[in-house]
Structures are given as C-alpha cells and as structure tokens.
Amino acid sequence: EEWNVSLWGSPRAFTAHVEKIAELVDEKTGGEFTLNISYGGLSNNRENLDGISIGAFEMAQFCAGYHRDKNPSITVLELPFLGVSSLEQEVELSMAVYQHPATVADLARWNATLLMPSPLPQYNIAGVGDAPAALTDFEGLSVRATGGIGAAMETVGAVPTSMSASEVRQAMDSGVVKAVAFAPHAHMSFGTIENATWWTENLNPGTVNCPVVVNTDALDGLSDDHREALLGSVDEALDHYIANYNGATMEAWGPALEERGITRVSFSDDEIAAFKEAAAAPAAAAWIEQNSAAGLPAQELYDMVTGMIADGS
Amino acid sequence: MATASLVLTDDSTLSKLDRALLRLERAFALISGLAVFGLMVLAVVSVTGRNAFQNPLPGYVDWIEQAMPLIAFMGISWVMREGGHIRMDIVVGQLKGRALYLTELITTLAVLILMVLLVWGSWAHFQRSFDFAAPMWSRDSSMDIALPIWPAKLMAPLAFGVLVARLLLQVWAYGRAVVTGQAIAVPLIADAATQARMEAEQLED
Amino acid sequence: MEPIDIGLWVTGGLLVMVVLGMRVAFAAGLAGLIGLIWIFWARKDFAMDDFGWALTVATKTAGQVPHSKVSSQALSLIPTFILIGYLAYYAGLTKAMFEAAKRWIAWVPGGLAVSTVFATAGFAAVSGASVATSAVFARIAIPEMLKIGYNKQFAAGVVAAGGTLASLIPPSAILVIYAIIVEQDVGKLLLAGFIPGLFSAFVYAALIIGMALTIKGFGPPVTGFTWRERFASLPPALPIVFVVVTIICFVYNPFGGDAWGTPTEGGAIGAFVVFLMALYRGMRWPQLKDALLETAKLSVMIFTIIWGVLIYVRFLGFAELPAAFSDWITSLTMDPMLILICILLAYAVLGMFMDAIGMLLLTLPVVYPAVMALNGGADVAAADSTFGMSGPMCAIWFGILVVKMAEFCLITPPIGLNCFVVAGVRDDLSVQDVFKGVTPFFIADGVTIALLVAFPWIVLWLPSLA
Ligand code: NA
Ligand code: NA
User: Fold this and answer.
1) Of C40, C160, C350, C372, which one's alpha carbon is 20 to 30 angstroms from that of C216?
2) Is C64 within 8 Å of A46 when comparing Cβ atoms?
3) Interface with B, mutate which of A162, A208, A209, A288 (most B CBs under 10 A)
4) Which chain A residues are closer than 8 Å to B50 by Cβ?
5) Are A308 and A94 in contact (CB under 8 A)?
6) Which chains touch C (3 or more CB pairs under 8 A)?
C-alpha cells in the first residue's frame, strides 16, 4: 500500500514530522505501507485541501490562514494574543480543537481527517530604522503582516501592507515596508534579517496553524494494522518535530541575530497587556460573531481554547 | 491596428453563427483588456495611497489575484477564432484542401475533448469554493483580506464554455470543408489566406 | 507500468500532437490530462470499473490548474508590460526611438537593421515583454527596411531578434518571474540584466555589419542626415527617459531615501505614465480599445500556454519525473562546468517546443537547486565555490544565462513566440519566413551565451556594486 503525500517547498523543520511519520510507518509495517512524499509536485499549497477532497492524494499539509472560509473552525488558533508560550502547548491546543466535533464536521466537508498540527512559534516583527521603544512608536510604521496579525498591528497605528512573501525582502531593502512579521524560520529563509536592525522578542501577536490531514476514505480503507501504525506514530513524530524545531532552528536563530547585530526589542508587561487589550478582544469578538453567523459554535471553540490556556495546560 | 482576420465569411447559417459568436467573444476579450487596465489603475491607487496618504490599499495582492483570471481566460475563445493560439505549422503548412481540413478536424476534436473535460474540472473547482448556505456564498477565501474566491474561479468554466461553443462550430466548419472543399468560419493559415485574397483580387480585375 | 514509463510515453505523444499542428497550449494540457488519467487508473490496476473514478480524479485535478496557476501577482507583470508596449506605440515613443536611431546610426553598413537593433534596445528600457516589443517594431521598422530594399525575411528576423532584448534590459517580466521562483533579490537581478542586454545588442549589430559587408545586395546604408536633423530627433524620444527614471525610482530610487514601490508596482506605474503620454499625443477610445484588445490577445496566448504546460507539469509531478531528473543530475561525475553547459544545451532543445515562461516554470524547481548545489550550495563563499562566485551571485549569473536561453527560444523553430507574433502582425510574412530571417541571429546568441558563461563578470560587475 502506498500513499501520496502533498507538501510544498523543500524538506525543512516545518515538514520534519511528516518525514518522521513516513519513516515510522514504513518501519512498523515492514515496508508494506509507505508514504511517498512530494514537495510541490502534486498540488499548490493553497489547493491541498481540494486535492484531498478529490482523492488525488491521501495526505497533505496546509495552513488554515491561507483560506479561512475553507476551514473556519481551525482559525480560532490563529487569533491574535492567545498567549501560547511553547510548541508543546500549541500541539495540545491544536489537538483539542482538531478533535472538537465542530472541527471534525468542518473538515469532513473536504473528506478530510485532521492528523496532527505543525506547531510554529509566535510571529514577531523584524524591521529597519529606529527600533520601537514603546508601542506608540508603531504609529505610521509600514509593516508587512497579513490576516489577523495585520489587523492587530493596525490597532496600534501601524500600516499593514500586503505583498507576496517573495517580494518582502526587496520591499524591505528598498524601504517600501519598514518591518515584517514572520516566524523565525521564515525571517531566515526569506532573508528579512539580512538588513533588519531590530526584532521584537516578546510581542508575540499570534501565529498560523498548519495541520496535516488525511483523506477520510483512505484512512477508513486501511487495514487495522496499517491504521494503527499510522495513528500510533503521531506522538513520536510530533516529539521529533518539536525537538528538532527547538533545537536546530531556534539554536540558529539567536546566533543569526547576534551575527548581524540585530537589537532584540523587549516590551514591558504593561505595554503588552495594553496592546493585547486593544487588539485581542475586538478580534476575538469579530471572529466569534462572524463564525457564529456561519453556523459554527464559535463561542464554544473560543472558550475551550482560552480556557485551556488559562488553566496553563 | 488589430491584425486582419483570416476567416472567410458567406451567407450560410454557419457563417452567421460564427459572426454572432464573434461578437460575444470580442466583448469577453475587451473585458480581459479592461482588466489589464484595471490592474494598472490599482497599482496607481496603491502607490499613491501608501506614499501620499500613509494609507495603502488593503489586500492589494488579493485584488490582483482576483483580476488575473479575467485577464488570462476571458479572451481565450476569441484568440481561437482568430487562429492566434500558437502552433507548429510545418506539417499542416504543407497540406492543402481536404487533407488539410481533415487534419484540422482531428486536432480540433482533440482540443474539444480537452476543453469539455476542463469545463467539468474547473466547474468542480468552482463548486468546492461555493456554498449557498455560507455568508457571501463563500467556502474559499483569499489570504490577506478574505475575499470570496468563487467569482474568480467561475471565470474558468465560463470562458472555457464559450470556447467549447467555438470549437463545436469549428468542428462543424471543418467537417463541412472536408465535404465541400470550401472552408468558411475557420482561421486559414497564412499561405492559404494569401491565396484566397489573390483569388478575390483577380475577380475584381 | 511504472509512472516514469507513463511519463515518457505521454511526452512522446505530446510531441506527435504538436508536430501534427495541434495548438501547443492544448496539446500540453491534453497530454497532461491523459497522463493523469493513466496514472490514476494504473493505481487501480486498470480495472474496468475504476476508469470512471480515474477520469473524475484526473479531470478535477487538472481542472484546478488554470485558476490556481494564473492567480499570481508575479504573473500580473506580463499583461502590464505588454500593455506598456502597445500604449508606447500610440504615444509615438516607438516611432521616435526608431527615428532617432535611424538618423544617428543608419550610416553604417546594414544601417537600418543596426538602427532597428538599437531602437529595440532603447525601447527595452520601458518594455518588459519581448513579444510586445517585436509586435510594435514589426509595424514600424519592417516597412522602412522593405522600402529601401532589404530582404523581407531578414527584416522580419531583425525585429524578432531585437525584441528579445526587452527581457534582459530592465525592466523585465521574465527576470522578475525568475527571481520569484527561486526567491532571489529582484533588484539585483534586474540590474544584472543591463550589461548582458546591451552586450547582446552590440553582438547583433556586429553580425549585421559583417553580413552587410559580405553579402551583395544587402540593404544599403542610409546617409545624408544633417547634425541639425540628428539633434532634432532627440526631443521626441526624451519621454522614454522620463519613463525609465520613473521605473528606476520604483526599484532603487537613485536620489536617496526609500524606493517608491515594488518592481511589480513599478511596471504598472510605468504603464500609467505611458498611458498619460499617449492621451496627450491624441490617443482616444478607439485606439485605446485596440491597444487593450491587442494586449488581451497576447496575454491570453501566453497564459493559455502557461496553464496548458502546467497541467502537463502536474502530471509529471505525479509521474515523479522531476525527482528522477534531479537525482540523476546530482549523481553525475562530470566536470561541473560541463554539466552547466549541458543544462544550457538542454534548455536550447526544450525551448524549441516551449515558450519562455512555461519553460522556466517547468524546469527551475528542479534545475535551480541542482545548479546551486554544483556551485557548492546557496550560502557558499566565492573562494570555496566551483564557479568562483558566492551563492547569491551564482543565482544571479544562472538567472541571466537561463533568461538569455529562454529569449533564444523565443526565436527558434518550431515554437518561437516572437516569430509567431511578427508573422501575425504582417500578413505578407509566414512564420517560416520569419524563422528563415532570424537564423543568423542564432550565431550571435550562441556567441553571447558562450561569452557570458566564460566571463561571468560581464553579468556580475554591476550587481556587485549595488
Ligand atoms: Na526591458
Ligand atoms: Na523556440
């Protein structure tokens, strides 16, 4: 039995769990069940859910923020200032949301079953020019930030500007934008740190949620042994992912900043709290209203996530 | 400055249908051209907004992505009518009369099969992004400002549908040409057109 | 049957369809769709009951490609740059460029053809699309050359070849698309194209002068312009400079301070400036409508090829051909320079059957990492590298080489878009005529590419200053 897996880009920290699960499944089934991973050959990243729904391949990765209307339930995890503090916590929250009946039904529209998240650390902002000392310094700052994070930045007077990720570096070099919000690995791979002079260490405005899904019919069609080999490998694959991200990527991040003499900007707790109040509550309210109208138990999902965070899970 | 069409016309139903469809095709092509113009205006608005008023156009990239299918698809049938889609005419250029029309009939049928399937496939792509029950009927949205994508996705089956009508007409026209030896309502390759024009000029003398 | 075998069979079938005269975009799309059906059906061991399933999945997979692939900000540059070309025609800019070049240069042997080359090179500074440049100069330069006795085929060839300069001399849609595919600095790449573009123009000119001196009955030089007439030809061409400065300000801003926008915005603003000039020069709705229809026509031709080829590429992805190719290249034990030359030759062959952008989209995801690996990796220092240049510089050098190859493919038979466009503009010319006329320029392009490979500093000097 062979499954095709649609990823994009190149093998990297962001895909380490899929590579690992392929290895584990192969091992456990003695090579009877293999996952054939393709990087961009089978689909565009924004059409991976379509491919799953058609049955063109059996497993895929995508990010909820690429297309909110395709997967409204998961976007609760992309709300700004949820206060997630570690990749482990991100996994726990994601799994809880993924198993919620409303989410299961949401993804069932695509004949998809959520397998595991690809946890990313909080986005933060790298920029050129004078480092912001207080939140008021964001007033009028042009920043490349999309979706919820862009909306959050707008609340402190920043000017969110939209462009494709590949144009970001040129835009920053030439001054079209002064700052860019990305996760650390993206700051490195899109070269935004090459010219940046500062990086916000603890703004933590939010992140994107990028699950790995499988085609439900294909999952049901697996023999019990094979299904057990796949589902039973999720935890180990995620452990490997987190160890790798916290290790290799984050270890490279600190020295990358120091080498380039990039200032780490840290905001006081009061200021973060003020930002959070200005941005988080309205965004959450808007999200709940919008998704309740679309027939989702939005309040329930939101309460579940914020409750888990409050409990310090 | 539009290039001269190499399509012959007469009083037959076929030719009348050809010219009726041409009007629709030209309207679609003009939409495509206007969309390019719109792209230009969009950039002016975005740049002026950002540089002069500190207020860039929200979702600039999303709007461009919405406009692109208009530009890329709407003129497809018009270009087919004018014989503009590029091809290699080393072999067909050597053929004349019925042999030529038969070859054209076969390749046109092949294109027709492809396009019928793509109308189906692109319609399915549209359908996955469309939901009557959802707000703004949207089940798929753009990345930055969450515009519904279904209108842009609908452009593909719409334009391809017109192309299918054009291809049906061309299959009829080539089939007729195989029988009668006279090709109307289909683009002639350059040499044949020159020949036809020379014949017409001789008549005028 | 293995997926790779299916891949080879379908590729063969595609070539047969193209040779039979099926329109390339649709031949590629059909080959891709049939290939997908075949691959999905093979998964079910060709059971009769499962054909319907395979057909459905393949059709729906292919049906995503047109919308998904054309909805890209990077590709929005193509129609914008084509529009600049046509608007500039109505603004009288093309005519002015050609007139100035004629009065200043046409006294050399083969003068009018040499003037055409330099006029297209000057026009390239506002035009970012080769096909549009060829299309507008076909209307202006060919009639003048015919008037003084140039061979019809050669006159068409000069215009087809001259048009390719627009994609090296910035701005250039295809250079931006390359930069976006491989995630490299757009500004430096555009800068890098300038000298190779001018260099190509001089090689073309040398070739024409050489031909004029050896071939009897070649078009005569045009002499007798007074200095007053020469200087009088400059002011009408000046608006070009204004447009160039506008576009440069978008990408670099030489006056210090921030650039005004991104390169994609710069293209659109350039079009807007030319649009205002055309309005001032008397363009009204009928002419604008013509320009928009012509823009739509060329754009649709190019986009149809793009999505057609990409359906085929999607099938190749399922057939695992790209991965097989990449493994093969990196396993070779030849001299890296020899491998690079083989890659460029492969581009020449591939380009015979494909258009420039389709070819880049098809190959770069596979070939670019292989070339970077040959040089020693993306972050290699010049001292440790195979080709004697750092990773980012290698990306720029290879980009210019590939774009020059892609431009070469615009004039090679059987599928050479520029030649089709020139033939399309002029009823008295068949595609074969244009291909015949453009043949001498293959030699010029061969020389240029060899020199760019042998002396990378021609490409890298300017971007290394930035
Ligand atoms: Na150019
Ligand atoms: Na070619």
Assistant:
1) C160
2) no
3) A162
4) 142, 159, 161, 176
5) no
6) A, B
Instruction: Point out the residues of chain C with pLDDT beneath 70.
Output: 1, 251-257, 259, 322-323, 325-326, 330, 353-354, 466
How far is residue C289's CA from residue C283's CA, in Å, rounded to a whole number?
10
Contact check, Cβ <8 Å, C74/A166: yes
pLDDT, tens digit (0-9, with 9 covering 90-100), for C114-171: 989 999 998 888 888 888 889 889 988 898 888 888 888 999 999 999 999 988 988 8
Question: Is A167 an interface residue toward C (CB < 8 Å)?
Answer: yes
Distance from the Cα of residue C319 to its chain's centroid: 28
pLDDT in tens, chain B (205 residues): 233 457 888 889 999 999 999 999 999 999 999 999 998 898 888 888 877 777 777 778 889 889 999 999 999 999 999 888 877 777 887 888 899 999 999 999 999 999 999 999 999 999 999 998 888 888 998 887 889 999 999 999 999 999 999 999 999 999 999 999 888 889 886 554 554 554 455 444 4
- Phi and psi at A265, nearest 5°, equal -95, 125
Q: Which two tokens stand for residue C126?
A: 């506002």
**CA–CA dist C98, C103 (Å, integer):** 9
For residue C2, what are its two tokens? 């293995």
In the block, residue with structure tokens 């030529």: B100
pTM value is 0.89
As a whole number of Å, the CA-based R_g of chain B is: 21
Residue A66 in contact with partner chain B when CB distance is under 8 A: yes
Size of interface A-B (CB pairs under 8 A): 61
Q: Which chains touch B (3 or more CB pairs under 8 A)?
A: A, C
CA C247 to CA B139: how far, in whole Å?
39
A47 contact C CB<8A: yes
CA of A187 to the centre of ligand 2 (A): 39
Q: Is B125 close to C22, i.e. CB distance below 8 A?
A: no
Instruction: Tell me if B120 and C59 make a contact (CB, 8 A cut-off).
Output: yes
> B105-129, pLDDT tens digit by residue?
999 999 999 999 999 999 999 999 9
- Please give the sequence-ordered ranges of beta strands (E in DSSP) within A197-245, or none if there are none: 198-200, 212-215
**Domain boundaries defined on chain C:** 1-71, 74-297
Nearest-by-Cβ selection for B146 from A46, A68, A176: A68
Q: How far apart are CA B89 and CA B100, in angstroms?
A: 11
Kindly provide the b/e burial profile for residues B114-143, where b requires at least 16 CB atoms within 10 angstroms of the residue's own CB.
bbbbbbbbbbbbbebbbbeebeeebbbbbb
Chain A contact present for B128, CB below 8 A: yes
Chain B closest-CA separation from residue A170 CA (Å): 16
CB nearest to A164's CB, from B55, B56, B61: B61
How is the beta sheet containing A198-200 ordered, strand by strand?
A159-160, A142-144, A179-182, A124-127, A198-200, A263-265
- Would you tell me how many other CB atoms lie within 10 Å of the CB of residue C56? 17
